[in-house]
Design goal:
mainly beta, Coagulation Factor XIII, Chain A, domain 1, two-stranded antiparallel ribbon
Length: about 230
């Protein structure tokens, strides 16, 4: 009976290990930073040594190693449904989607999703340059397609999140996914892209980072940005 019990415990423990293991090749990305500032006088370097983050996505946990949040629970990346991603939820509610991801629903007021254990909200001005950073997650290799990153910015000022369908009418930038630092660690190579803040009245707006890995396979991150 003791041997049988020990064997059962070993099988359960082994299954638990395999069920929690996620191969690196299956990792997917997210917006690690919404407002990345390069070091003054330095080159465009997306690594932690090349600058600092001054604005984050909703409820983005601080003090995590860059590119590590795919192994957290819940993981950071949110994949919209395959069947009709253009009508899926634009931001994760931890329930919907092919991969639910972390909670990025809009807080009331939006400032409640920032500060403390979370990163600060992005504060910017019309005409400013915002640079967004993301981890490569093994999808910036030579044999990988250079998937598109959409930056969508709602025109609804101080309002609830608009639908994904409406957000697609407000695409303000398209960035190459494989704009990354060089390096051997394909999982955690730092990548990013920059764009100009378009004309908007002063207020708080939904900004969405949206990346297409394969056809109808979209991953999103949502942030509130305050335009002054």
């Amino acid at each position: 009976m003791v041997l049988k019990s020990s064997f059962t415990m070993l099988v359960v423990a082994t299954l638990a290990v395999f069920s929690s293991y996620t191969p690196q090749a299956e990792a997917h990305s997210w917006a690690d930073c919404i407002d990345w500032k390069f070091n003054k006088g330095g080159k465009q370097d997306w690594s932690d040594k090349g600058g600092k983050c001054t604005g984050y996505a909703r409820r983005f946990p601080l003090h995590k190693a860059f590119g590590s949040l795919d192994s957290a629970y819940p993981n950071r990346h949110y994949q919209q449904v395959h069947k009709d991603p253009n009508h899926a939820l634009p931001c994760s509610n931890r329930k919907a989607g092919a991969e639910p991801g972390s909670d990025e629903t809009r807080a009331n007021p939006p400032s409640k999703a920032y500060g403390g254990k979370y990163g600060r909200m992005t504060v910017t001005h019309v005409g400013d340059t915002l640079c967004v950073r993301w981890p490569a997650k093994n999808h910036a290799k030579k044999n990988e397609p250079n998937g598109m990153v959409q930056i969508n910015l709602s025109k609804a000022r101080n309002a609830k999140d608009i639908s994904q369908h409406e957000l697609l009418k407000n695409t303000i930038a398209r960035l190459p996914y494989k704009n990354c630092n060089s390096g051997k660690n394909e999982d955690r190579r730092a990548c990013g892209g920059c764009f100009k803040v378009p004309v908007r009245a002063k207020g708080t707006y939904l900004l969405q980072w949206r990346w297409m890995l394969n056809k109808n396979e979209w991953y999103t991150s949502c942030a509130d940005i305050q335009i002054k």
